[in-house]
Model the fold of this input.
Amino acid sequence: MSNEPIALTKALASFDALWSPRIVTRVNDYDVRVAKVEGDHLWHVHDDTDEFFLVLEGELRISLREPAGERTVTLPKGAVFTVPRGTEHKPSAPSGAAILLFEPTGTPTVGDRHEEIPAHVDATTGHSLTL
Done:
């Protein structure tokens, strides 16, 4: 990890892959990740951790399957949302977006349980940022 400030715009400009987060820094036992996203991710669940989203550019939609039924939250640029642990969810960005995620180091992008992983989704615990 760098001991110098990191511009998120520079970090996002350093890669093109969609749904393939880069680890910008760590805070205690948590990764701060940035990702470019477009289209649909997949339905998945993180059994033991919440998942924090901040939209840096564009708009992100997160569909949720909750006890009361299914709903979708829409996050414009600058909005944050936390998906509670154990909640099945599916992020999507029809027009593309850049997001920041905050989650425990080693958390897989496809959760602990998930549907079949499509080819455009990188099943990873995050990649190192190369500037």
About this structure: The CA atoms of residues 11 and 131 lie 7 Å apart.
